[in-house]
Amino acid sequence: ALTLGIVGLPNVGKSTLFNALTKNSVLAANYPFATIEPNVGVVELPDPRLERLAEIFGSERILPATVSFVDIAGIVKGASEGEGLGNQFLANIREADAICQVVRGFADPDVVHVDGTVSPASDMETINTELILADLQTIEKALPRYEKGAKHKTLDPAMHSTALEAKAVLDEGKLLSSTKLDLEPIRELGLLSAKPFIYVFNVDEEVLGDSAKLEELAALVAPAKAVFLDAKTESELIDLPKDEAMELLASLGQEESGLDQLARIGFDTLGLQTYLTAGPKESRAWTIRKGDKAPQAAGVIHTDFERGFIKAETVSFADLDAAGSMAEAKAAGRVRMEGKDYVMQDGDVVEFRFNV
Ligand code: GDP
């Protein structure tokens, strides 16, 4: 599964957030045969559509999609120079598919800040500088080989030119993810700052209701997405029954827990989307990549479904919801037969037809 790597300076609330995520873990309940690693938290992707489908189809159970987070401990200034855990840290980030950077916004004077003051902007700069420096090293190491390869026509010359363009971006102190540069020719380098980013601002409860402050923080990271939460509150919410948790959230002016927001935005940042299946046994969300076509989507259920794909009987959730039943949706002409070139849309409710 694709994963989001959680990074951030010490004492910003990573462990508090990660513990809340793992307490929320669905693995044990729904996926008994999955291996659980201590630094991986797997949470449900909240999807109210599944409850409605279960109602329509009389499903016995609901299986949401999941989102995986990996706790990547140990970034410090100088990580790119291989200090302390630096090398291991960078290797762990390399394996993550997107980066979730936790930034401290809470004031609490009892919790020491590594740099002495709480400053989201300078914290982000510290982390991002390490990623940029690590990428510069990677590129500088590869450049002589790319240059030779271009000269002797043993390598695609685009590798050399792209590496130079990427280096120029990094030299300006910018993350590669902040540019439109096509890095495909040098994909093999696994550049860290090219990964999709989201920022989690761990702020005090009061700040969650202060829209001016939130906008200010969001502007710091745009166009990357920001999630605002109070890690301490989140870890308390986890222990409450659902209705009490919703009440507490409402009292803070929130409609959704920070963890749920993080799951949704994280899933989206990974480039993923879901389609839905429903029947008397279960209503279920399946994870695919944005842009996947119907046969690939079928393959997520079973490889035989992809190989023997004939058609996908498809209705949008909105149409099915409005119709109230599959029969009514069909009668209203809302159910389509899609072929192998159909690009899946978020919220498609599907039944595949296939040869075995
Ligand atoms: P990490 O080093 O980034 O993993 O940070 P921790 O999760 O261990 O948190 C460091 C300290 O800050 C702990 O004492 C936490 O209880 C505290 N802390 C974490 N999140 C919050 C928060 O949202 N508000 C306050 N006031 N304290 C927090």
- The dominant shape is flat
Helical residue percent?
A: 40-55%
Radius of gyration from the alpha-carbon trace, in angstroms: 23 Å
Order of helices and strands: EHHEHEEHEHHEHHEHHHEEHHEHHEE
CATH class of the largest domain: Alpha Beta
Bound molecules: guanosine-5'-diphosphate
Number of helices: 15
How is the CATH topology of the largest domain named?
Rossmann fold
What do these coordinates show?
The radius of gyration is 23 Å and the shape is flat. By secondary structure, it is of the alpha/beta class. The chain has a 6-stranded mixed beta sheet, sandwiched between helices. Strands 3-9-8 form a 3-stranded mixed beta sheet. A 3-stranded antiparallel beta sheet has the order 11-10-12. It folds into 2 domains: 1-46 and 65-272, Rossmann fold (3-Layer(aba) Sandwich); 291-354, Beta-grasp domain (Ubiquitin-like (UB roll)). Strand 8 (272-278) and strand 9 form a beta hairpin. 42% of the residues lie in helices and 20% in strands. The chain has helices at 14-23, 27-30, 49-57, 86-95, 120-151, 157-171, 205-208, 211-221, 231-237, 242-251, 258-269, 294-301, 303-307, 317-323, 326-331; strands at 3-7, 40-44, 61-63, 66-71, 98-104, 197-202, 225-229, 272-278, 282-289, 309-316, 336-338, 348-354. The protein has 15 helices and 12 strands. The model has no long low-confidence stretch (mean pLDDT 89). Bound molecules: guanosine-5'-diphosphate (GDP). Residues 8, 10-16, 106, 108, 111, 202, 230-232 line the site of guanosine-5'-diphosphate.
